[in-house]
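HUMAN: Quick job: go over this next protein and say how the chain folds.
***
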Amino acid sequence: MLLAIDCGNTNTVFSIWDGETFLCTLRTSTHHARTADAYFTWFSTLVNHYGIKLDITDVIISSTVPRVVFNLRVFADRFFGCRPLVVGKPECLLPVDVRVDAGTQVGPDRLVNTVAGFDRHGGDLILVDFGTATTFDVVAADGAYIGGVIAPGVNLSLEALHQAAAALPHIDIAKPQNVIGTNTVECMQSGVFWGYVGLVREICDRIKAERDRPMKVISTGGLAPLFQQSYALFDAFEDDLTMHGLTVIHQYNKDN
């Protein structure tokens, strides 16, 4: 079995892959001080709840938070007796090229999404990931990562509004019934929701114009389903894009 771990700025996701399907997917908050023992206590408790017999032979990690990687390495070594493959490290091979400015560090999550998107949809893609940041990753016809766009995440924008303006409450993002809000919460929801609809549409249109070719737009991330319903912004939604990419990268390294 393969344990795929995706560590983001807000949440860390663990998925168990048996070679054909994901047996379960577990989430915990990302915290750099969490020890290997703490990871295993949490992980094994939930796995037992699902009635899964653990037989982890391989571990692959993608992390946008470098400080957590050490404890995740210890977790893999101590409890599963394996050296994890870490995306972004020299020993981790990628099945696609990365064509960016020399010296540029591309987030591992963006590389993993590129691999997954190309594997499922082919090339000429725009991958929109609604995470802590809202990222746009551009995939060339041959699957290469060729750059993208980084914008503030939806929840980050809401939190900034709440913290910077004393009269504005903390709210959850939702699609408003009308564009014109008749109370503070509706006004904020409308501004954030329709503002991000406009942001996604405009950035994708400009990328397509710059590339001068048809491109598919694929969404992923926690808030993607909310925006998926809005005016056909996306050609497809992938809820397990990153995890799929990790399985593809793992298999590529085993084969090479």
